[in-house]
Amino acid sequence: MLFTPRNPSLHLWDSWLLKQGEEFHLFHLMKRTGESSSMINHAISKDLVTWEEKGPVIERGKPGEWDAGGLNTGITVHHDGKYYMFYGALVDGVQRIGVAISTDLDKWEKYDGSPVLKIDPRWYQAEVLDASEPGVSWRDPCIIEDENGIFHAFVCARAKTGAWAAKGAIGHATSSDLLSWDVHPPIYVSDRHGFLEVPDVFRLGDRWFIIFSTGQWHTTRTDDADYAASGMRYLVGESMLGPYYEPKGSSLLSTGLGVLGAYAGRSISLEGEDHLMRRMPIGSRLFYYHNAYRTEFLKFTFKGSWGLPKLLTQDEGRLHLGYYPKVISAIISPETLLLEGEEFSEFYPGVHGTGIEWDKLGQGLSGYCPGGSAAALTRHKISDGMCQVKVSIASGGAAGILFRYDDGSREGLALTVDVTRQRVELLRVYRAEFGWTSCIEQYRPLAIDCDKEYMIRVVARDCFVDAYVDDQAMFSLSVEANKKGRTGLYLENAKAQFGSVTVKPIGRR
């Protein structure tokens, strides 16, 4: 895990970053299992991998104080030599937003005039009886300064009018001093999302974007719910204040029905980054989030771990998440194991009398499985690390990399590209007495062409799996699986060629 609180009884939840000089300051909600967040924790890093935990800086208020209820996501702003931490709290069924002030990011004083950002009933749901969840929504501020020195706050709210199962809104307010705020009508009201949580507003190129988080528990109604019911989506706008629209295929990093994985995504500018980032696309941003995972796999109570940061870019109004080499290079060992053709010593089902063919090449294998599934295994085992392969499929079917395969349970995971279904799949695979069988953990649509080579990469750490195709992030989620196992190749109703099969364990450089 990249970062979790050192106290095992306290869990990381929504987070936000502030970069000052060479240091990243991470602030995050902290909670106990099954309870609402009760404090805000602080940690510092120079590489987004090694963290020094400073400890809680804000704690839930005492009875009668404005923040005496469960705490909500915040944001930290630097202005005129001071730091302003805006955060929320739910008290008496109504969410409100207040602020604490610091000169050093360590010691914070709650502002006596809080809450400073108050909901306006002219445009937003403000009464508990009107809310579609146990509380009035007014949370998760994102605050940015415009060219005229005016601060704009964007918040998760509910519009006063609209369809009951929708009207999730991005609320808007302005201030010249960060303490006195004027609330305005929403800049966006959804017709299919009940809530647009943790909004992140920014400009890339000639367009403005709003990333938001939502889930099936928030009355979300989408046509891609089977693979993107919960997670992060985005809006596209002409200016900071819109108008905005949600493009088709707006899912940025999501999980399917019944699964909670990557959530609460935000981004910060990469301007001024070191030489590694000068090779990145102009206007790139660092995208960060947390991975939720179950404390007990069959119980729906969750912990959180800071996710593996991604590279955020845009192309003609479409946002893309990609492989972020700076962080990966910091966690991957310099030891690189290239699995050449001779390394593959076990084939199942066998190649005699089955129609299955495997041919060893200098840097990999070619394989043919006319029906069902087949695998080629090496002796090499890996727990936390990165596995990757270049694969091209001649016609139909799926092919990819097998990892964490355990001989005892005869179970593992496979990441494949599927020409027939036109998607990327994370499969749980089993070696049965009659051959391989599988069930799907997660998938994402992707145009896959025959005879085109794709780089498939998976980063596995603890219970988390991050999947990439040609450096584009496909999904990030937790899975119940073996923590260590053999690496191999996987075929399903396909003829494919595999090359550059490499394994890199996670370790300190």
Name its key features.
single chain; 509 residues; mainly beta; Tachylectin-2, Chain A; Jelly Rolls; 2 domains; 13-stranded antiparallel beta sheet; 5-stranded antiparallel beta sheet; elongated
Plain-language structure description:
The structure is a single chain. The strands form 6 sheets. Strands 23, 24, 25, 26, 27, 28, 29, 30, 31, 32, 33, 34 and 35 form a 13-stranded antiparallel beta sheet that branches. Strands 13, 14, 15, 16 and 17 form a 5-stranded antiparallel beta sheet that branches. The chain has helices spanning 225-228, 275-278, 325-331; strands at residues 11-20, 23-31, 39-45, 52-59, 70-79, 82-91, 94-102, 109-110, 138-145, 151-158, 168-175, 182-189, 197-204, 207-214, 230-237, 244-245, 251-255, 262-269, 285-294, 302-306, 310-315, 318-322, 337-338, 346-348, 357-360, 364-382, 385-393, 398-406, 411-418, 423-432, 435-445, 454-461, 464-469, 472-478, 485-505. The protein contains 3 helices and 35 strands. The longest helix is centred in the middle third of the chain and has 7 residues, at 325-331. It is an all-beta fold and 509 residues long. The two termini are 17 Å apart. Mean pLDDT is 90; it is low at 274-281.
* CATH architectural name of the largest domain: 5 Propeller
Count of discrete alpha- or pi-helical segments spanning 4 or more residues: 3
Query: In total, how many domains does the architecture comprise?
Result: 2
What is the top-level CATH class of the largest domain?
A: Mainly Beta
The structural class is mainly beta
Shape: elongated
Instruction: Examine the coordinates and then state which fold CATH places here, giving the name of the CATH topology of the largest domain.
Output: Tachylectin-2, Chain A
Q: Uncertain spans, ≥5 residues at pLDDT below 50?
A: 274-281
Radius of gyration: 24 Å
Strand content: over 45%
Total DSSP E strands: 35
Distance between the ends: 17 Å
- What can be said about the biggest beta sheet? 13 strands, antiparallel
The average pLDDT is 90
Helix content: under 10%
Give me the CATH superfamily of the largest domain.
Answer: Glycosyl hydrolase domain, family 43
